[in-house]
Amino acid sequence: MSLHDDRVTGGTTPRSRPVTVTVIDYDESHLEERTYTLPEIRLPARRPAVTWIDVDGVHDTKVIQAVGDAVGIHPLTLEDISNTRQRPKIEDYGDYLYVAVRMLAPGDGEFHSEQVSLVLGRGYVISFQEHPGDVFERIRERLRAGAGRLRSEGADYLFYALLDAIVDGYFAVIEELGERIETVEEEVVADPDRETLQAIYALKRSLIALRRSVWPLREAVAQLERGESSLIGEQTLVYFRDVYDHTIEVAETVETYRDTMSGTLDVYLSSQSSKMNEIMKVLTIIATIFIPLTFIAGVYGMNFAYMPEISHPWGYPLALASMAAVAVAMLLYFRKKGWI
């Protein structure tokens, strides 16, 4: 299993694909949803309303700039949004919060990672994604159906819901990793081979990459949970504490899996070393048995006219019998010592 920074393995987002922007304005009794390809975004004048601007694609800088101009996002933040290799972080600009996180999704024998940028302002939330497909569909469905607390809460609650959906996606990846680790452990105990070693190192690389995403995210969520920003209401802080607990759980699971894989690698190396020792033991026993036999054969193979038993009619069978007796005696001795 390996981690890829693209939703499509080995590929990148096509520059020709248009960036789509979905704007959802809502309050407890009203919801309006609009989709643009080259938007002129305007925040609703009616209050209390929450606006969610979901940008699908960050490769078109004109669209990113248009979104930033609509709500007053700093150029440095827009630069961070376009640069999809950001370390998970949080930045407080006073009138808005910027959070960069990694969104993970399980795949066929691997999992994918992409950067998601979230901006929380007064009455609005903006999400920037690299590729189509995300973990926010359930939130959209809840908004459209008016289910739960989303429609009756403010922008900070929507911001929490989006962040919580991203963190929950980590558990699906963790579960798949756990299944792969169990499979590799069984292979190590049963019959490890070179492919098993490759699977171990692939899992270790995936866990390292996952750790690089989780630990900075933990710091960012901890800062949100402390309630230092006026954009997050007191009643919403308890939900961010729940997200922080989930992040801690993911981080601890990753550390446990890393320790497990280190132990699995040690077991694999010990198993291979044990196999090699068994092979060397067998070869050593064979060589040890044949040393005296070679000596006897060498003595009776010398070309001398006068040698004991050289003209005896039973000389040859006796020489073979003595070799067999020596071999049997050595085997019995090795068995008595517990070497075989």
TrEMBL record:
Record key words, sorted: Cell membrane, Ion transport, Magnesium, Membrane, Transmembrane, Transmembrane helix, Transport
Transmembrane segments: 282-302, 314-334
Short name of one Pfam family: CorA
Membrane topology: Multi-pass membrane protein
Entry-linked InterPro entries: CorA_cytoplasmic_dom, CorA_TM1_TM2, Mg/Co-transport_prot_CorA, MgTranspt_CorA/ZnTranspt_ZntB
Keyword DNA-binding attached: no
Compartments where located: Cell membrane; Membrane
Highest taxon in the source lineage: Archaea
NCBIfam families associated with the record: corA (TIGR00383)
Family (UniProt): Belongs to the CorA metal ion transporter (MIT) (TC 1.A.35) family.
Reported function: Mediates influx of magnesium ions.
Classification via PANTHER family: CORA FAMILY METAL ION TRANSPORTER (EUROFUNG)
Name listed for the protein in its UniProt record: Magnesium transport protein CorA
Lineage: Archaea, Methanobacteriati, Methanobacteriota, Stenosarchaea group, Methanomicrobia
Gene designation per UniProt: corA
